[in-house]
Amino acid sequence: MAKKNYDQLSKDIVKYIGGEENVISLFHCATRLRFKVKDETGVDKKRLEQLKGVITVINSGGQMQVVIGNDVADVYEAIFANTGLKPENKENDNKRQEKKNLLNTFMETISGIFAPVLGAMSGAGMLKALLILCTTCGLLTADMGTYRILYAAADGVFTFIPMFLAITAARKFKANEFVSLGIAAALVYPDMTAAFSAGEALSFLKIPVVLVSYTSSVIPIVISIYVLSKLEKGLKKVVPSVCKTFLTPMLSLMIMVPATYLVIGPISDTAGKLLASGYTALVGFNPMIAGGILGLIWPAAVMFGLHWGFVPIVMNNIAEYGRDTLFVITGPNNMAQAGATLGVFLKTKNKEIKELAGPAALSAVLAGITEPAIYGVTLRFKRPFFIGAVFSGIAGAIVAVAGTGAPTLLGTSILTLPGYIGVGFAGFLIACAIAYFGSAIVTYLFGYSDDMLPNDNEEEQENKTEKIVEKDVEIKAPVNGKAIALSEVKDEVFAGGALGKGAAIIPEDGRICAPCDGVVSLVYPTGHAIGIQSENGAELLIHIGMDTVTLEGKCFDIKVKQGQEIKAGELLIEADLEGIQSAGLDITTPIVVTNIDDYVDITAKNMGNIKAGDRLLYCISK
């Protein structure tokens, strides 16, 4: 089967996310492109959601999450292949302080650390499930070489997970990746793990060391790398440049490895045990109620991407008890959403809905990936989503009462069911069956009908109405100066008309005013450009100077905000022209009409010396 081409989709996604200049960082998880942007108001969420290949767009956890589905990795690669964005783009919060609440900061940090290694953990978990099935069926035994090699491949990821997290945490906290890896290696060093297993009493500079097991741990290494990031900043200020290359890493290892063994490790290990015992006590107090509540709220947690916050608890449960029950309790939610989506698939006669619901239901039940089902089908029609949530709660209660657990991180699907073999396995199978078939049947009978679909004629008429340009439009000069043809601008993008038709002005002063009545459709946070929707339908872009985005807001004083209604002549932005020129940048300011397909012709008027308010462009509507 030929590989799908995502070139145009990747370009459109970056375009509507606000352009390359609006992207601070980008990574992806199993189904979502996770953008961190400079200005959320610069994201055209509506147009993003209308792109074929995009399921939905969510602003959650401090990220713009573009939900793609199973093909997210291919779209991710296409973005880097077709735009100027680079995989190694680093976040730069120091240049642009953002106000974020504690929850957003926590979720962004957790997802940034765990999402990149999710693929390896999921693959290793699936392999463990396969080995459990093989030993249960008698195809392999634990002493066979084949089993031992494959088990090493599966268990190695979880045993040495501190080393994986050291890399992702270093990228998140902007610490040296290889020094971070060195710290993790010291924590799982064979001599130290042997000392723990033997119960040896060790000391460092006569200070007793409380040895704990760091294999399969997650909290100690994350905290250590965070502290390392702060230490490195301090060292860079005091270590001479001539020996910074080797002295900073040496001091970092000398300080951080003992500090982790003496302080960070024991404290975080204790915190992890308290976390694990607290969760266990909560479920043990009344497993039916606890499991029911967890199962019921889990679809909402997945919907907003909040399920990432539970990953450290799951990994800690596995490290502490050798098994996890949290993701097992919430696992049947995958089956519930798959069943609800199947109910829609069976009930609908609409070809488009069938084409969407069929693959989404299959993805959820076979791979445990529910975002296409949730965003593309169940949440779209609401009732199937809530039916799935109810059955997820019922199944969660059953699983909690059965006491089912898994020895590894697993996403619940048909293929991973062998991974749950053990205590409570029968109860888990019953819960999954109830979630799947119950959601499918109830959705088919009561949860969906094609009457829920919007009327196509009404929708088409609405779309046509939105695109109507009421009449010819006159655009006035936004600033005093010398008007020139757009082709004379020393920038091939503007000069070639790639962004639209119009003219440019070499300004005499920095007062950029509204060229027409309308609404501010976009304000770049750097202040170098502004978008305007005229009251008659023209979409305008005023770009103050060339490459002025590099000034990062210096020399620009924004006077309006996005969504604000404006009148012709109203002050939009004050620009420091001398400051722009002293930075070696061109102050030529293009004024372009971007929705050129709505006009028969766009003519530039009054070239040469021009005053703000004089007629600059005339747009003849179709």
Write the layout of secondary structure elements.
Blueprint: H1 7-16, E1 23-28, E2 32-37, H2 45-50, E3 56-60, E4 63-67, H3 72-82, H4 102-114, H5 118-136, H6 145-159, H7 161-173, H8 177-187, H9 190-198, E5 202-204, E6 207-209, H10 219-238, H11 244-285, H12 287-303, H13 311-321, H14 326-330, H15 332-347, H16 351-367, H17 371-381, H18 383-402, H19 425-447, H20 456-467, E7 473-476, E8 481-485, H21 492-495, E9 501-507, E10 511-513, E11 518-523, E12 529-534, E13 539-543, E14 556-558, E15 565-566, E16 571-575, H22 577-582, E17 589-593, E18 599-604, E19 608-610, E20 615-621
Antiparallel strand pairs: 1-2, 2-4, 3-4, 5-6, 7-20, 8-9, 8-19, 9-17, 10-16, 11-12, 11-15, 12-13, 13-17, 14-16, 18-20
Helix pairs in contact: 1-3, 4-7, 5-6, 7-8, 7-10, 8-10, 8-11, 10-11, 11-12, 11-13, 12-18, 15-16, 15-17, 15-18, 15-19, 16-17, 17-18, 18-19
Question: How would you explain this protein's 3D organization?
Answer:
This protein has 622 residues and is α+β, with helices and mostly antiparallel strands. The strands form five sheets. It has an eight-stranded antiparallel beta sheet, with no helix packed on it. The chain has a four-stranded antiparallel beta sheet with strand order 1-2-4-3. Strands 7-20-18 form a three-stranded antiparallel beta sheet, with no helix packed on it. Strand 1 and strand 2 (32-37) form a beta hairpin. Helix 15 (332-347) runs antiparallel to helix 16.
Q: How are the strands of the largest sheet arranged?
A: 15-11-12-13-17-9-8-19
Radius of gyration: 29 Å
Q: What portion of residues is helical?
A: 40-55%
Please report the number of helical segments.
22
Contiguous low-pLDDT stretches (5 residues minimum) are 89-99, 456-470
Shape: flat
Mean pLDDT: 85
Say how many strands there are. 20
> Could you tell me how far the N terminus lies from the C terminus, measured between alpha carbons in angstroms?
44 Å
Structural class: alpha+beta
- Multimer state: single chain
